[in-house]
């Protein structure tokens, strides 16, 4: 407070100073006067006196306030518990009422549906309740035989494994009561497969038009295929008649066009053409050892026991790759 007159007063000092005055009082709680300082201001000109009081207030916590705080907290907890209990009670009541309404609805629908259901000719009327169980018995055993028309059809149940059907009793053969037994081993047999690869890696056929020699691929061919499809160097002989899938592929090492035929022939009969395959020429500038032309064909035909099957080349002097994966032919029996 620079430029102002400071008057430090203690307790019991009158204020008789004239003129403008600013009074600074430092008061506080002391051991002599534990209730604090009581200040009395007496001045001739109260408007000219400015009072600045620096004091320290201390608030002592009371036990009553603590008790009231604890009681307020407990009351809040009790109100919360009561509210939750009431809400849970009404929630259970609502669930119970909903279940009762659902049961009444189901009972209503059941009663009205029973009124509309006509009596089935295969089911007798209801008997009395026996130990809380609704028992029905077949109409044929209910004693009401007089109600059945003499022209009514009678049925029996035929067991077909997982399925059962009603069959007219007039069509039932009384001599055969047991279900027929089928030999399923016929359906479990492996198909007849005979696969042949070239016996040499590369060959020039020259003037021999019959392609070969061939060797049986035992990893692909089925067991005992030798007895049903015999291999005789450049041709095969069919020993079991049936419907066959016949397939063949030939790889040529040439730029010229090529064509081959698959023939089947019975002894002392004219040959039958099963299928044919033809290629165009290779007009590229690749060297001959890299100019590979393949021709692949397959057909379904019926072969007979004693048929001789071979592959015949149309053009002479053709170089063939007979190695496995390039040139091959074979048979798959589809049915008898």
Automatic annotation (TrEMBL):
The keyword Iron-sulfur does not apply. Keywords: Cytokine, Disulfide bond, Glycoprotein, Membrane, Secreted, Transmembrane, Transmembrane helix. GO terms for cellular component: extracellular space; membrane. InterPro entries: TNF_CS (IPR021184), TNF_dom (IPR006052), TNF_Ligand_Superfamily (IPR051748), Tumour_necrosis_fac-like_dom (IPR008983). Residues 192-334 form the THD domain. One of its GO terms (biological process) is immune response. One of its GO terms (molecular function) is tumor necrosis factor receptor binding. The chain crosses the membrane at residues 67-91. The keyword Oxidoreductase does not apply. It is found in: Secreted. SUPFAM superfamilies: TNF-like. It holds the Pfam family TNF. Belongs to the tumor necrosis factor family. This is THD domain-containing protein. It comes from Pectinophora gossypiella.
């Amino acid at each position: 407070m620079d430029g102002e007159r400071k008057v430090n007063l203690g307790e019991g000092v009158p204020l008789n100073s004239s003129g403008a005055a600013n009074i600074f009082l430092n008061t506080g709680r002391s051991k002599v006067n534990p209730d604090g300082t009581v200040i009395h201001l007496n001045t001739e000109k109260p408007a000219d006196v400015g009072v600045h009081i620096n004091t320290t207030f201390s608030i002592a916590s009371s036990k009553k306030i603590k008790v009231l705080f604890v009681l307020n907290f407990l009351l809040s907890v009790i109100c919360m518990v009561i509210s939750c209990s009431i809400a849970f009670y009404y929630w259970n009541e609502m669930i119970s009422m909903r279940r009762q309404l659902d049961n009444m609805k189901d009972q209503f629908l059941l009663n009205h549906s029973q009124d509309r259901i006509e009596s089935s000719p295969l089911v007798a009327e209801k008997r009395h309740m026996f130990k809380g169980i609704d028992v029905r018995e077949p109409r044929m055993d209910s004693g009401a035989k007089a109600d059945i028309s003499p022209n009514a059809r009678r049925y029996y149940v035929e067991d077909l494994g997982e399925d059962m059907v009603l069959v007219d009793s007039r069509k039932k053969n009384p001599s055969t009561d047991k279900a027929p037994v089928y030999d399923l081993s016929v359906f479990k047999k492996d198909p007849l497969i005979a696969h042949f690869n070239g016996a040499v890696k590369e060959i020039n056929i020259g003037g021999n038009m019959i392609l070969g020699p061939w060797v049986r691929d035992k990893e692909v061919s089925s067991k005992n295929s030798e007895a049903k499809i015999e291999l005789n160097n450049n041709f095969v002989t069919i020993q079991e008649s049936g419907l066959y899938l016949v397939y063949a592929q030939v790889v040529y090492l040439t730029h010229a066009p090529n064509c081959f035929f698959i023939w089947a022939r019975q002894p002392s009969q004219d040959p039958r053409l099963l299928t044919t395959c033809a290629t165009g020429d290779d007009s590229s500038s690749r060297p001959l050892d890299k100019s590979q032309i393949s021709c692949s064909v397959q057909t379904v035909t019926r072969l007979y026991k004693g048929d001789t099957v071979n592959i015949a080349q149309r053009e002479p002097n053709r170089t063939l790759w007979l190695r496995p994966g390039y040139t091959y032919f074979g048979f798959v029996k589809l049915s008898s």
